[in-house]
Amino acid sequence: MADLDERAVARPAEDPFGEYGVYSRVRDGLRAYRMIAAMWIRSTMAYRASFAMTTFGNFAATSFDFVAILLMFSQVDELGGYALPEIALLYGTSAVAFGLADLLIGSMDRLGHRVRDGTLDTLLVRPVPVLAQVAADKFALRRLGRVTQGLFVLGYALATLDVAWTPVKVLMIPLMVASGGLIFCAVFVGGAAFQFVAQDASEVQNAFTYGGVTLLQYPPSVFAKDLLRGVTFLLPLAFVNWLPGLYVLGRPYPLDLPTWVAFAPPLVAVACCALAGVAWRAGLRTYRSTGS
Amino acid sequence: MGTGRLYAAVAAGGFRRYATYRVATAAGVFTNTVFGFILAYTYIALWHEKPHLGGYDQAQALTYVWVGQAMFAVMVLGSAGFEAELIERIRTGDIAVDLYRPADLQLWWLAADMGRALFQLLGRGVVPMACGALFFDLALPDGPLPWLACLVAVVLGALVSFAIRYIVALWAFWLLDGAGAMQITWLTGVFFSGMLLPLNVFPGALGDLARLLPWSALLQAPADVLLGEADPPGTFAFQLGWAVALLAVGRLIQSAATRKVVVQGG
User: Fold this and answer.
1) pLDDT at residue A19 in the model
2) In a domain, B91, yes or no
3) Structure confidence at residue B71 (pLDDT)
4) A134-154: pLDDT as tens digits
5) Is residue B265 part of a domain?
6) Interface check B34 vs A, CB under 8 A
7) Cβ contact (<8 Å) for B183 and A54?
8) Percent of chain B beyond pLDDT 90?
């Protein structure tokens, strides 16, 4: 009886700072993520020429979105009432935010494969959080290509924009990139959780990740109100760059929202991550191995 | 078995192979439809700014968007098709087995790819197009003739798409790693097929050049035939010309490769 009581006292959930507490689990997860990612980087660097080519390919492929916008602006002077530098700001911030999320945990969209062929089992028996392992799996440094092209466009926007910069507006740029990146991370984690249920349907996720970043590259005035309501209140992608970005540009958001929502992205990001975490746990609990 | 029946069986196999993954097909349709919506709104903004841009009115531009989403999987504009598999067979040496078969390598893969294209036209082409017609005001033809002409242009476009990717795959006999070649082909294809923007919107000489290259046979040609913007016989001749030329080049490379090559393996 004494033994049982002692075990009850040492139950992990009761002390968040203890050996099995939340904080130490997060620390372990991040450490594992760093180690796995470092391993993939070392393996990539074994073929440097291939790395250089695929990074350039990633840069070129993701630049096409901006090339399309440039082609449009070879014919018109504004789109949806926005000039090129203004669209470049929206493009640059969303591209860098998405690029960082894609670099950090973009490989999670391959989770469906692991569920299908049962290789997720291997990850479950290791003493490392599954989320950290899946997120770092096949860590692809070549995705720096997208971040780089986003930074180029963002630099162009900042150099050419005609905006009365205030300290708040300047701070808004890193804030957009950081909280936008977190919102996209939450979309990736949520999408991965969905893949536990719908293994073959992994392409649906692309509609929200790649589709989402394509949407945000254009000004909101281009889209129908219903679509805007959807990405503001249901899947809050509008908080990545539209709401804070329009504050920087001094333009009204097509939906009637108070000004303070421009400062809400960090809160929205935290809420999204929490929800994605819940979805991830629920998804992981439903996992049944292929059994072969 | 007669040769005709052999390749028909291979094509049917290609069709069935893709038809097996119904959930994945539905997921692809969903994603194509979402992208169609996003593009449609940007085109509305663009044509609002400059009506009759590139000779299209707004309804024609919107039709172009949805034809593009319908052709995305058929013409393999988004990802790798059979060429990834063929490259892998060349790299591992399995190609030796293929070359022993009493069937022509090019025709075999062509038949399989046509089966795939037919399935993706039905499975991934029809629904996004119908969805676009439901939500937007499209410039669709009234009679059956333009639709039939468009179908011919799609078949010819699929031939050109195959011919290009077959040449790319055969480079693996010399390069062994086909990843770089595949990526460059893919990038060129996205740019010059009109997937980014209709080629008639491309400025000046770039537009003229793009319309002469084989990639314009994949999307621009079927779309223009459907929209009544191109004269069908001339378009078919252009597509057929590229298909024949590229298939012939593929055949030349194939014979060079099979004569010189030392097959990998052990």
Assistant:
1) 64
2) yes
3) 95
4) 999 989 999 999 999 999 999
5) no
6) yes
7) yes
8) 74
Domain count, chain A: 1
The shortest CB-CB distance from B49 to any of A76, A206, A218 is to: A76
A222–B28 CB contact, under 8 Å: no
Residue A16's domain comprises 11-285
Counting as low any pLDDT under 50, the low residues of chain A are: 1-10, 12
Residue B266 inside a domain? The answer is: no
Distance (Å) from the alpha carbon of B251 to chain A's nearest alpha carbon: 29
Q: Is the Cβ pair A76, B201 closer than 8 Å?
A: no
Rounded to two decimals, the pTM is 0.90
User: What does the alpha-carbon distance between residue A24 and residue A256 come to, in Å, rounded to a whole number?
Assistant: 43
CA–CA gap between residue A29 and residue A36 (Å, rounded): 11
Instruction: Give burial (CB, 10 Å; 0-12/13-18/19+) of A122.
Output: exposed
Test mutation, A78, A116, A199, A206, chain B, max B CBs within 10 A: A206
Quick check: is A290 in a domain? no
> Looking at chain B from residue 216 to 255, which residues have their Cβ under 8 Å from any Cβ of chain A?
none
* Residue at A3 is within a domain: no
Total structural domains within chain B: 1
Q: What is the pLDDT of residues B90-100, one digit of tens each?
A: 888 888 888 88
For residue A218, the chain B residues in CB contact (below 8 A) are 38, 41-42, 45
Q: Is the separation of the CB atoms in A144 and A64 below 8 Å?
A: no
- Closest-CA residue to B151 (of B117, B100, B199): B117
* Domain that residue B109 falls in: 3-260
Q: What is the pLDDT of residues A1-19, one digit of tens each?
A: 444 444 444 454 556 666 6
Instruction: Look at residue B261 and tell me whether its pLDDT is greater than 70.
Output: no
Which chain A residue's Cα is nearest to B197?
A: A68
How far apart CA A31 and CA A128 sit, in angstroms, is 9
| Chain A contact probe: residue of B18, B22, B25, B31 with most A CBs at under 10 A | B31
CA distance A171 to chain B (A): 30
E strand or H helix that includes residue B265: none
Best of A187, A203, A237 to substitute, by most chain B Cβ atoms within 10 angstroms, is A203
**Is the Cβ pair B196, A68 closer than 8 Å?**
yes
How does DSSP assign B50-107, residue by residue? STTGGG--HHHHHHHHHHHHHHHHHTT-SS--HHHHHHHHHHHTTHHHHHHSSS-HHH
3-state secondary structure of A79: strand
CB contact under 8 A, B27 and A53: no
Q: Is B266 a residue whose pLDDT tops 80?
A: no
- Judging contacts by C-beta atoms under 8 Å, the chain A residues touching residue B197 are 68, 71-72
